Amino acid sequence: MTEQEVFQQVVKILTPYVKNQEALDQVAMGTNILEDLKVNSARLVDVVLAFEDEFDIEIADEDVDKVNAVGDAVTLILQKVG
Amino acid sequence: MTERVVVTGMGVVAPNANGTQAFETALRKGHSGLRRNEAMIEHGFGCHVAGVPQGVDALAESSFDEEVLLAMNQSHRYTAVAALEAWLDAGLERPAADDDRVDWDTGAILGTGIGGMDTTAAKVVPLVNAKKVRRLGSTSVEQVMASGISARVSGLFALGNQVTTNSSACSTGTEAVADGCRRIRDGLAKRMLCGGAEAASHYIWAGFDSMRVLSRPFNDEPEKASRPMSASAAGFIPGSGAGVLVLESLSSALERGATIRAEVAGVAVNCGGHRGGGSMTAPNPSGVARCIADCLTDAGLTGADVGAINGHLTATGADPKEVGSWSRALGRGPGELPWITSTKSMIGHGLGAAGALECVASVLMTERGFVHPSINCEDVHPEIEPFASSIPHELQELPELDTVIKAGFGFGDVNATVIFRRWQG
User: Fold this and answer.
1) Which one of B116, B143, B315, B324 has the minimum C-beta count within 10 Å?
2) Domains (ranges, CATH) in chain B?
3) Distance separating alpha carbons of residues B118 and B96, to the nearest angstrom
4) pTM given for the model
């Protein structure tokens, strides 16, 4: 998978949880998931489950802590998909 | 000075119709919403028929935010769709999600009999047993908890008064109306969304099938399977859905120029103590009689004032006893008993939703002046035969009808009764 393909899937998975439409319209690798996209932190658990299902990978809790921006999620997923 | 309480809005998701207009049409025409149920057949139930609302997901998807929908199981969707209809019907504005104001004067009592059993059975139990707890995700608790449906609605409408889920088995929805009415009378709220919901899940219905209280002989004729008051009644047919009524203080309704659909003239709840013939699953006739009498007293009415009865009438062996109880409690014998009808004949037994769905039907009858047919009882039960002239086999247009009494008698020997009166203005 290319970085661009993963990026698009990540954005698609995040979309229902995003509360800031403007930030979503301009989303880039550096966009912060909680602070820019205003995703409810309580729902991150569900976002991670969706990543796992979509890419057929397992993401440990420690890995999740390092994901702040969309790009962090993309990098993590590319590593796991490998 | 206690407030009078009126109904200013209603919403319904029922096996035979969604929306109060379609529901009224279906009731008038005697349309059944009962159908073959594949899940029951596949899992070897004795009963193969159930009442399930149609097309609710499409309604929910067009009404609610995508993220919220991810946390809304069936009973959440039923409740939210019905509550939204009721809210708008009451002429209230739906608050925007980013509007931070709270409506401190409006609350909700929205009950259920069983709660999020569908989610428990489909997700919690299998995943936990497979030691995959983390796969439940963040939305599991709010869908499983009994108060999920009221908690969901509170967020949709920024409710700031009491928000709770009551539970009293088959009398749940009627009890919710009674309790909401009392809160408003006491001046503790101006408006209460009252009603109940139940999901459509074979897991919910399994226990009833096992105790052989669900009807089996009419599996090939689903629309004929729910037969309250008939000689061939053989148990109830499970139903599902949601009904919501906006109860409001008369002063609040008048102040904002709301359209008043009916008055909640009297309420009563009690239990029969599992004595005097009562048990976990059968009502104590004395308890039933007292509940009806208390409701009449609360309304300042007598049995002679009642124009129609919307009974509990589930099509079990209790039906004949119930008709006898109504007759004694209202003091009206054969030939004098008011019209007595069972909405369950068309929509089955909605359990936690039953009382709510049937209260909506009762308000429609009061407001519009009709009594809907009680279908599938052309063969009246021999013990009910003396009262046969009180059973509407066809729609009855009754422009003079102004007082309808609704009761539910639930497992646990619990009773709830409400009297609706036409609002004269």
Assistant:
1) B324
2) 5-255 (3.40.47.10), 266-421 (3.40.47.10)
3) 30
4) 0.96
Q: Are A45 and B137 in contact (CB < 8 Å)?
A: yes
Q: Find residues 74-93 of chain B whose CB sits inside 8 Å of chain A.
A: none
Q: What is the ipTM of this complex?
A: 0.87
List the catalytic residues of B. 170, 312, 349
If DSSP states are collapsed to H, E and C, what string results for chain A? Answer: CCHHHHHHHHHHHHHHHCCCHHHHHCCCCCCECCCCCCCCHHHHHHHHHHHHHHHCCCCCHHHHHCCCEHHHHHHHHHHHHC
C-alpha closest to that of B197 among B137, B262, B117, B124: B117
Of B67, B134, B135, the CB nearest to A17: B67
pLDDT band at A82 (very low <50, low <70, confident <90, very high): confident
Give me the half-sphere count of Cα atoms (radius 13 Å) on the Cβ side of residue B184. 34
pLDDT digits (tens, 9 = 90+) for B218-258: 999 999 999 999 999 999 999 999 999 999 999 999 999 99
Which tens digit of pLDDT belongs to each residue from B133-175? 999 999 999 999 999 999 999 999 999 999 999 999 999 999 9
Q: CB atoms < 10 A from the CB of B134, how many?
A: 12
Confidence of residue B1 (pLDDT cuts 50, 70, 90): confident
Task: Return the CATH number of the domain spanning residue range A3-81.
Answer: 1.10.1200.10
Domain ranges of chain A: 3-81
Mutual angle of helices A44-55 and A3-14, in 10-degree steps? 140
Question: With an 8 Å Cβ cutoff, is A49 touching chain B?
Answer: yes
- In this complex, is the C-beta atom of A53 within 8 Å of any C-beta atom belonging to chain B? no
CA distance B233 to B227: 5
> Which of A16, A45, A49 has the CB atom closest to B66's CB atom?
A16
